[in-house]
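dumping this here before i forget
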Amino acid sequence: MEEKNIPVEVQEEYLQAYLKVMNLWGLEHHSEEIENSWGTTHINICGSKDNHPLLLLHAASINSAQWYANVKAWSKHFRLITVDTLGDCGWSRPNQDLENKTQYNKWLVDLIDQLGLDKPHILGHDYGGWLAMNLAISNPEILDKMVLLAPAASIIPLNLSTKINWKMSALPFISPLSKTSRLISKNDLVEKEFLELLDAAKRSCKSKILYPSVFSDLELLNISNPTLLLIGDQDKMYSPLKAVNRAREFIPNLKSEIIINTGHFLNLEQPEVVNSKVINFLKSD
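structure:
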């Protein structure tokens, strides 16, 4: 594999860190590369073809390996398609930088169409949550249900320290991601291989994704898909309570919950809790 955002001289180091996390998946899966006008999108797939498709969108500055604590449980019920976001620290290769929300939407619409997915569920964490909401606002008809895990911005602005770390993360004097992630997460609950992958991403990858915006009241009101929002009570990216309260006010068909004793990587810190809530929501009538 070759990645446009990862210099050749460090690709091997990053690949080895990536493979260590992929080994934590603990189940059979395969990879595909989908080519279109936007570039080449790398995806990992697992679960029966007979199951309803579930599209997974990862956090910023990482890749689809991040679902290691979730895929075994979710793949029993869904056909999982885990996507490496164009321009971020996965193995997708963009032909050009995606410069606005409309281009990200068109990329995902084209991807869903090429994969032949019939109204997939969509689940996004952090930046993946912003991408999922952006798609649901503009193209709700192509999706079934949506799950948001601590979406980046989207509902309320990121706090100042998170903004600084986001905008300056590529600078060499900024601490490794495994350290800065402690500002928003409980690292003692995350596998060391994943923390090593975060650090490898900091050393190896130059993420070129669009900074996530806060959606307007009208945009949130336009989300018609049944939606589940989960945020950890110790997430320091923004105020979990304020985010949940605004979401409850403006997203029409919403279920929401703050997960106790959990930071930003809630799907990794409390996987049994999150896995169960996601399955129950997506399988419900």
